[in-house]
């Protein structure tokens, strides 16, 4: 898969994983595991990129004697999710056009 396309899809997947409630790294990886294999280093790169883009906020809290970062989606992150959903219908039409030859 094209690296830029995959990068964009992973960003949106992470936003979707925290859309309904704030979450932390290990839980995000666990929630996404049925869909995509994601390493910790990849996830934290994505989280930092999304934070820099103001698509999520971060808070630190103690949990079981250790500090844990919790991530929450922002309005900008929600708008990105909505843009993706809108773009998806166009991508789906392109996919069907490309794969129609396979059906023949």
Please outline what is shown here.
The chain has 104 residues and is α+β, with helices and mostly antiparallel strands. Helix content is 62%, strand content 15%. It is elongated.
Mean pLDDT: 91
Silhouette: elongated
- Examine the secondary-structure arrangement and name the CATH architecture: Orthogonal Bundle
The CATH topology corresponds to Arc Repressor Mutant, subunit A
Number of domains: 1
Describe the structure.
The longest helix has 29 residues. The protein is elongated. A hairpin with a 2-residue loop joins strand 1 and strand 2. It has one domain: Winged helix-like DNA-binding domain superfamily/Winged helix DNA-binding domain (Arc Repressor Mutant, subunit A, Orthogonal Bundle). The mean pLDDT is 91. Helix content is 62%, strand content 15%. It has a two-stranded antiparallel sheet. By secondary structure, it is an alpha+beta fold. The protein is built from four helices and two strands, in the order αααββα.
């Amino acid at each position: 898969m094209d690296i830029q396309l995959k990068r964009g899809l992973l960003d949106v997947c992470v936003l979707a994983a925290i859309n309904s409630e704030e979450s932390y790294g290990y839980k995000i990886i666990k929630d996404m595991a049925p869909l995509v294999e994601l390493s910790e280093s990849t996830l934290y790169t994505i989280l930092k990129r999304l934070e820099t883009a103001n698509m999520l906020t971060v808070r630190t809290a103690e949990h079981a004697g250790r500090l844990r970062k919790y991530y929450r989606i922002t309005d900008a992150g929600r708008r990105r999710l909505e843009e993706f959903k809108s773009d998806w219908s166009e991508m789906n039409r392109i996919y069907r056009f490309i794969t129609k030859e396979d059906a023949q």
